[in-house]
Specification:
single chain; 163 residues; mainly alpha; extended
Length: 163
């Protein structure tokens, strides 16, 4: 998920989706470049938040969609007839919950509501997410036994480096 763009722009989103989707469709499950712009010479916490949504969408696309007689629901279409209201059918609801994916950040309001609400851009929402995370995150302390083990490994490493 790398981009040549030097600042947050449409180019960033396009390039990150493109450079992440193609390897994921080929079977890659590890991603790099998350949070980076300008060929990863610059890191941005806001871009990291946006990239999490991009990567999440890539994973959903790469997972694929099951297409068979059951998922196409020909029997349901026959049963409901012309001009059906699929939203009231429990079978549709069950399938919808399995297949539906929605990013956290993009703006979904109508233009009037968005304008009235301050016309916030995706970068603004990402910034709010970063500020909230940095302000309120309280990491759980590391278990003492794990901390001791880490220090033992670190000390062994330091001895090797010195010799």
């Amino acid at each position: 998920m790398i981009t040549d763009a030097h600042y947050q722009s449409q180019q960033v989103g396009f390039e990150k989706l493109q450079t992440g989707l193609i390897p994921a469709m080929a079977g890659a499950s590890i991603v790099s470049g998350v949070g980076g712009i300008d060929k990863d010479d610059t890191a941005s916490l806001e871009q990291l938040v946006i990239d999490c949504d991009i990567w999440s969408s890539i994973l959903r696309i790469a997972r694929g969609f099951e297409v068979n007689d059951d998922t196409i629901s020909f029997e349901l279409m026959k049963r409901l007839g012309p001009n059906p209201d699929y939203q009231v059918d429990m079978e549709t609801t069950k399938r919808f919950r399995k297949e539906y994916w929605q990013p956290r950040l993009p703006i979904r309001q109508k233009l009037a509501a968005w304008s009235t609400g301050g016309s916030r851009k995706i970068e603004d929402l990402a910034h709010e997410t970063v500020v909230e995370a940095l302000s309120n995150h309280k990491p759980a302390p590391i278990d003492r036994d794990i901390e001791k083990r880490i220090m033992e490994i670190y000390k062994k490493f330091q001895k090797r480096v010195r010799h």
